[in-house]
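Predict the 3D structure for this chain.
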Amino acid sequence: MKFSELKKDLPKEVYGILSKDIKELRPAQGKAVKKGLLKGKSLLVCTPTASGKTLIAEMAAMKNILEGEGKAVYIVPLKALATEKYKDFNNKYEKLCNVNLSIGDLDKKENLERFDLIIATAEKLDSLIRHHSPWLKQIKTVIVDEIHLMNDPGRGPTLEVLITVLRQLLPKVQLIGLSATIGNPEELAEWLDSELIEDKWRPVELHKGVICDNEVEF
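Done. Predicted structure below.
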């Protein structure tokens, strides 16, 4: 799918930024658009690393923000990843919306109600919910990166409860789950009440082999 086909669906400011570098959508991105990404549909995206999952999420988030539908929250498992996403999104969209990184202690005065796109860890967002932060009801888009960690013994329960509470708190939320590895994507998509996007395309072909005596046999 040509990126130019999205000109009428994306806010012109977002289209102007993205069209400088993107001429054609990757397979998963095209599938997501056809499944209703830009019409508020919730999606579970299960595709290989570097296949373009982040762009899927940010298009939905920025469309909802600039069209006045509500805030976007990008949930990540690690503080380092949160910092990386914050830098990327702030560099790209700082002139269009207020981006904030929220990974510290709750006692810190962050004034999150004045931000449009918030990158946070699951534990931090869970804490904000437990403290009944009033701005949470303004969220329209929730992006869960590495959503397969729901199966993790440590982080899994927090993430599962967090998603459950957010869906109850925000009945009209657009939920975008992202992962490269999910063992039961159909079941998870059904639980999330979302459309499943699967694709095996990757930018660099992957080969599997065995190395023995400094020789590789594929």
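The chain has a mean pLDDT of 93.
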